[in-house]
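= Paired protein data =
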Amino acid sequence: MDHFAGLDVSVKETSVCIVDDTGKIVREVKVASEPEALLAVLTNPVYHFKRIGLEAGPLSQWLYSAFAEAGLPVVCVETRHMQAVLKAQINKTDRNDARGIAQMMRVGLYRPVHVKSLRSQKLRMLLTHRKLLQSKAIAIENDLRGTLRNFGLKVGMVGTVKFEGRIKELVENLPDLAILIEPLLIVRRALREQIVILHRRLLVIVRDDAVCPAPDDDPRCRPRGGADLSRHRRCARSLS
């Protein structure tokens, strides 16, 4: 006899409902939202699972990887479609949600979603953190430009490397402003240093990735004019 399971996952606990192929509830239990606790229930030899439903959420990628490694037929389900179906229930509880997910697994009423690999999740984290630090550094620079302009101090066109020196030059004869500006410059300096570290890690990954060829190897990256040639050389130097 085939069995189907529905998991309603929260941060601390997960409600598990197991039904057979006729829709009869075989077991209901609430355990900690940890792979070890859930596997202790789902790897019971009494059950022969055909599908195990897991709603997409903050912990779904972590739990999905653990279930897949254990050889369980886990399915990660699209959240909005799942909520639209479960909303028809009279009493909205974790226990009833687990029951609804189990029945949806049994009748095949679900939309599976792709779960990224652990490597893809780490790459996404690297890109997200790099972008976050860049946005914070730019916000500080724009704030410095705006506040100094109120005192008639114009930063003007200046690059990232010479930005701090330009700010110090403007407030050199204004010690009261320099005291207020210095904390922001320290934070900006730390952000820029960490951005360089993350950017170098990203370049190492790009060099070893077959999907991201170097500019000289990709015909789409070949220059077609003077401006493209200059941009192409700068890109090549940044990757070297």
About this structure: Residues 118-209 form one domain. The chain has a mean pLDDT of 86. Strands lie at 3-9, 13-20, 25-32, 49-55, 74-77. The helical segments are 35-42, 60-69, 79-86, 94-107, 118-149, 163-170, 175-207, 226-239.
